[in-house]
Amino acid sequence: MYNELSPRKQAILKAIVDAYIENGDPVGSKALTQSKQFVLSSATIRNEMAELEALGYLEQPHTSAGRIPTELGYRFYVDALMQDYALSQGELAELNSMLKAKSAEIDKLIHNAGKVMANLTNYTAIAVKQSPGRNTVTRFSLTYIDERNFLLVMVCGKRSAKTRFVHTDVPVNEEVLRMLEQVLNNFVAGKDLSTLTLPYLMQMEQCLGNYAGLISPIIKFVYEAVDKDEERDLHIDGVDKLLEYPEFMESGKLKDMLGMFDRKDELFELFDEEGDDVTICIGREKGVEAMAGSSLVFKKIVVGGKTVGAVGVIGPCRMDYSKVVSAIRYLSDGIASAFLPGSGQLTPPSAPDEPNKH
Amino acid sequence: MYNELSPRKQAILKAIVDAYIENGDPVGSKALTQSKQFVLSSATIRNEMAELEALGYLEQPHTSAGRIPTELGYRFYVDALMQDYALSQGELAELNSMLKAKSAEIDKLIHNAGKVMANLTNYTAIAVKQSPGRNTVTRFSLTYIDERNFLLVMVCGKRSAKTRFVHTDVPVNEEVLRMLEQVLNNFVAGKDLSTLTLPYLMQMEQCLGNYAGLISPIIKFVYEAVDKDEERDLHIDGVDKLLEYPEFMESGKLKDMLGMFDRKDELFELFDEEGDDVTICIGREKGVEAMAGSSLVFKKIVVGGKTVGAVGVIGPCRMDYSKVVSAIRYLSDGIASAFLPGSGQLTPPSAPDEPNKH
DNA sequence: TTTTAGCACTCCTTTCATTCAAGTGCTAAA
DNA sequence: TTTAGCACTTGAATGAAAGGAGTGCTAAAA
């Protein structure tokens, strides 16, 4: 589909997108000839631009304005035309200093990554933290509080734990809790939830005699704890950056965005993507109406084969994709390797030696 | 200070604030006479308004506009003039249906309260969840995971628990953990942290022999868990509601707000208030520059003498205080009584029988 | 002494016409 | 195939004019 574009058309498209990303004004044929990168007259470029528009890569806000890229134009740009951006020394320093403070939990690191991203790119950043879906509880532990209350601790995998306070109508004591704990560890720990059939549960209840009534509320908690959506968490940073881009100042765009930021479920869906490298969603490509005019760039954070979260930025379609992509890739990989067991040192994904001045 | 205002001035001030809150246009003398609540000519009212302005309760955007309240004007209004708003049946139903879904943790309830508040009042809502400061850990529980890892569970009070994964250099087993657990429960549980002096810690370490090295990282976690700031959490809902008020559309107000929403620390400070009833912060009263033109109304949620959070709304100074106050009071008290042990039924703070049409 | 009618004045908002500049498409020539 | 030239379109910027809302002040009325 793309090969219908001659090299010259591609060069012109690239120049237009680059220029438009940089200053936000529709770019006309004259501006391109003045930029000295083409030895063509404005008329020739005009013809090419007219064809690019007919092909759907460009559009005109109105008759007497220059051209701006369409969603298709941006798509082609990020897929085929965009150049790699090498992070500057200062930018690398900023990212690294964040990554080195890896003392804390991965949650905090991801959260901080959002703040850093927002600052570095000057777009709104989204940091997603998600525990791997479809857990099983690997171990139970019950802690006595008083006759009617105890704490249920569920260890999921080796890296996360959830607690619930359980109130009982039957009085309990340490001994009962030990027994219950043992039953849970024998019957439920490590099992997939689908194996918890009714007869199976009844078997457990038999083991507990008078305390059989405790099982069903606990199982409810287990379901809740294991439920995939339960453990997703999403932080948005630098919302005020949106205001720096005129595309959000008019019409209802800003409202759309802020509304979407409130409906986190909808946001999560945007992050459901197969790819493992940086994903770029331009405008309504994913079918989300509120994304019209905006783009989302993100990358999953994968530690030891498990997706533990993602980090991304959201901003106008007219976004500095090449810089954003570089920053996100660096940060996402950096977080991942900071948490890879054993690896203390970061391994930057690319060797940036010559910083771009942008 | 306030008694310098004659009853008539108060009535006029009230009428002005009411009218301005309702439609956002500066209110002139003519509008007041037309409202039929005064049997005075516009000239008389003009004189009164001029005096109210001289006293600092009103101001004029420009010479040929009506008057709008100053921060002092709003202050007087909320302190002395504002009428109680009786929530309508529909509004009560909305609030109650939220409160009845009390299955979940108090965290979730508070979070939901924010969403409901935002919808009901049409202002941005803030839901604060804070565990009572300066906890002690009341009980420890250790769960074996593998030779080098175990889970540390710290129960604080009877209502909250925190977990930490601990990695050890010394191999451990169930037995060791039991011993360690006992030591922690004997020496640390229920103690104020200030009693954990160095000699005291050394005494503990003696009890543990080879495993003395485990104590210090655990104590570090205890400090973290007990640290006051650790457990504050804040959710903002309905940010897009800001856009419905023209005061945020111009100048940098919106940016100020969004910026403040990002700096949660600053927000938390606004919620540090002594009072137990609804608190109203008008504009820069609390010394926060970003609050210029905006007001915050909130109320702590107090369960059994402990502050567990707060719920509030933030919006333009021109806010429907009376409705907001009623809603917040109802919700805050509702959450509190939903979580008061034993009390299944809600006890509404006031008996609303005749809904206001507003 | 207080209230009110009357009036000149201020200042914002809206409207309309005009001008200006940028950029285009098209045609014809190179 | 490219380019110069030109007529045309359109939004943005400017400024004058009109309109309106509201005020303060003065003097008369209650």
What does the secondary structure layout of this molecule look like, with pairings?
The structure is a homodimer of 358-residue chains.
Chain A: H1 7-23, H2 29-34, H3 42-54, E1 58-59, E2 68-69, H4 71-81, H5 89-100, H6 106-121, E3 124-130, E4 137-146, E5 149-156, E6 160-167, H7 174-187, H8 198-208, H9 215-226, E7 232-237, H10 246-249, H11 253-262, H12 264-270, E8 279-282, E9 294-303, E10 306-316, H13 321-339
Antiparallel strand pairs in A: 1-2, 3-7, 3-10, 4-5, 5-6, 8-9, 9-10
Helix pairs in contact in A: 1-4, 5-6, 5-13, 6-13, 7-8
Chain A binds a DNA duplex (30 and 30 nucleotides) through helix 3.
Q: Based on the structure, what is the oligomeric state of the protein chains?
A: homodimer
User: How much of the residues of chain A is beta strand, in percent?
Assistant: 15-25%
The number of distinct helices of chain A, counting runs of at least 4 residues, comes to 13
Find the count of extended strands of chain A (DSSP E, 2+ residues): 10
- Assign a percent range to the helix content of chain A: 40-55%
- Lateral strand order in the biggest sheet of chain A: 7-3-10-9-8
Q: Let me know the largest β-sheet of chain A.
A: 5 strands, antiparallel
**What's the Cα radius of gyration of chain A?**
27 Å
